[in-house]
C-alpha cells in the first residue's frame, strides 16, 4: 500500500513539474503544433473551418463551447478561456444594440 502511495505521489510531482515547465514555456505542449503560428484568432478559426461554429456559440453565449472551439483552433487554454469570456460579455452588452450593417426604416 505504501509503494502505491509513493508511486502516485511521484506521478503527481512529475505532472506538477511538467505543468510548471509548460507555463514557463520551457517545453512546448504536444497538443499545440505550430500550424497556426502568426495567425490571429479569427484567422485560426477560418483556417480550421470553425468560424460558423464559433459564431453560433457566440450567439448562444455558450462560453464552454467557445473554449472548446478555440482549443480546436490551437488557441492555448488560458487565452481561449479569456477570449470566450470577453466575447460572451461583449455579446451581452451589445445585444440591445442594432446589428452591424442594419438600416433604419
Question: In words, what does this structure look like?
Answer:
The protein is mostly helical. The protein has two domains: 1-30; 35-95, no CATH class. It is built from five helices and no strands. It has helices at 2-23, 41-47, 51-60, 63-72, 77-93. Helix 3 (51-60) runs antiparallel to helix 4 and helix 4 (63-72) packs across helix 5 (77-93). The radius of gyration is 19 Å and the shape is elongated. It starts with a helix and ends in a 12-residue tail after the last helix.
Question: What layout of secondary structure does this protein have?
Answer:
Blueprint: H1 2-23, H2 41-47, H3 51-60, H4 63-72, H5 77-93
Helix pairs in contact: 3-4, 4-5
- Any idea how many domains? 2
Structural shape: elongated
How big is the Rg?
19 Å
Q: SSE order in H/E notation?
A: HHHHH
Number of strands: 0
Q: How would a crystallographer describe the biggest sheet? A: none
Q: Give the proportion of residues in helices.
A: 55-70%
Structural descriptors:
single chain; 105 residues; mainly alpha; 2 domains; 5 helices
Amino acid at each position: 500500500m505504501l509503494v502505491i502511495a509513493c508511486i502516485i505521489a511521484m506521478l503527481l510531482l512529475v505532472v506538477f513539474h511538467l505543468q510548471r515547465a509548460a507555463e514557463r514555456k520551457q517545453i512546448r505542449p504536444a497538443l499545440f503544433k505550430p500550424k497556426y503560428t502568426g495567425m490571429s484568432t479569427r484567422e485560426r478559426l477560418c483556417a480550421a473551418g470553425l468560424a460558423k461554429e464559433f459564431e453560433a456559440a457566440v450567439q448562444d453565449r455558450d462560453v464552454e463551447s467557445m473554449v472548446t472551439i478555440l482549443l480546436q483552433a490551437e488557441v492555448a487554454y488560458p487565452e481561449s478561456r479569456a477570449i470566450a469570456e470577453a466575447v460572451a460579455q461583449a455579446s451581452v452588452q451589445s445585444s440591445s444594440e442594432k446589428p452591424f450593417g442594419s438600416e433604419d426604416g
